[in-house]
Amino acid sequence: MNDFVGTGTLVRLALRRDRVLIPIWIVVFVISAAGSAKASIDLYSDKAALVEAARTSNASPALVSLYGRIFDESSLGEVSLFKLTAFGALLVGLLAAMLVVRHTRSEEESGRLELLSAGVLGRYAALTAALIVSASTVIVIGLVTALSLVGSGLDTKGSFAFGLMWAATGLAFAGVGAVTAQVTESARAANGLTAIVLGVAYVLRAIGDSSSDGSTQWVSWLSPIGWGQQVRPYAGDRFVVLLVPLVFLAVLIAAATALIRRRDLGAGLVRPRPGPPRAAKSLRSPLALAWRLHRGSFIAWGFAFLLLGLLVGNIASNVDGFVTSDSAKEMVQKLGGVEGITDAFLATEMGVMGLLASAFGIQAALRLRSEESALRAEPLLATGVTRSRWLASHVLIALLGTGALILVAGLGSGISSGASLGNMGRQVPRMLAASAVQLPAIWLVTALVVVLFGFAPRLVTGGWVLYGVFLLIGQFGEIFNLPQWMINLSPYGHTPRLPGGDFSVTPVIWLTAIAAALTLAGFATFRRRDIG
């Protein structure tokens, strides 16, 4: 039998399953790039202000580590998109890898691929179909992003270099996902390995970019994200560098196909370690078990939030030099909703932290559905554990976990900005308050996933769709002059802009009350439906 037979059928099945998620994320990436370009074109009409902003960025080790170096300080396109060059490529790579894992290892773990293999299905069909879907997605993201940047007024050649850079980085990490899917028996473990590779790649890029004397710049070439930066969109447009991630992809595909022949369907190259015959006392409650399941990802997220908080606080001390023109200051103040330029920056970045913390809340709440689908929930519920206790265990981890993450980010930014500005005693409590007011909106988004799980579990991934919509409205609603009623649909739009802005308790109470009502509705509907 042909090893690739059935590939077309699996491609159509995957596209049908992701017919909502893929378009949403394409729109998110495209509008993010176009919105950044449009805002920057309005900000930097003055050439001197543009060059000054670029030089200030390159002079800040924190900014260079976080976003990368600006190669051409007079390039409007590069300055407009420098925050999305490395970081955006990281997110595209994450999407590409997770799509591959979703349609390979997740299908094996659930047993669906075994059922399909009972028909006419080649050995490499699932991997090939997943790679086709993932590659098509990132290529569409790259091309449509390039067209949107041209439409925003940026240079055509540089715009296509930027879009293809995103696509090529995504293809490289699609290959990473193809390999990690062969290593473990769990989709979560495969995604975890992919996240580690992404993190290492980003750190290697940061080490190379941060080199002041050029002695460690070569380290960037060890990273697929660094390869993308070396395309240098709007600063030379070196299209030939795009061959490097394509060769990398070919090598990883060859490795993944070789690994497939060395394992059985459903098995991984690394066998899971058997646990002890009896559970420890620390695991003898639903909440303890839920914590054990979420512990690893929470610790990783916590470390990332602390690091981001410290970086944001350090950058805040230089933001006056980065934003020099009056129009630039007005735009940052508009996004942050406050008058002081430093406070505006901190308020804006804390809002971004709130968005990121929401992603953890969604992920933690979605674990309910994965436990149910994998038939691990039913044995627990067959004991003395009630439905409400089991559901509450994961919901508590999601709610308390997001609270801990955003407060860690606030603490880190308060310490860092306080040390830089010479007023730590004032900055720490201000940033903790700025982080705390993000919680009602974060909890509301998490509650939406809970109510979807209780009411229509098959639609629970719609939480990511709603998250993407809220992200677009919240981040680009004012830039694109959307009507106020549409901006009000996002819970993040009602969050007080702290530090420095006016605090109103009314939206905080309303958001918290709605989140509580949705959570209770999720509990009520879950108790009335069948498991599975």
TrEMBL record:
UniProt key word Ubl conjugation: no
Domain of life: Bacteria
Repressor keyword on record: no
TM ranges: 20-41, 81-101, 121-147, 159-178, 190-208, 239-260, 298-316, 344-366, 390-411, 431-453, 465-487, 507-526
Keywords tagged on the record: Membrane, Transmembrane, Transmembrane helix
Protein name per the record: ABC-2 type transport system permease protein
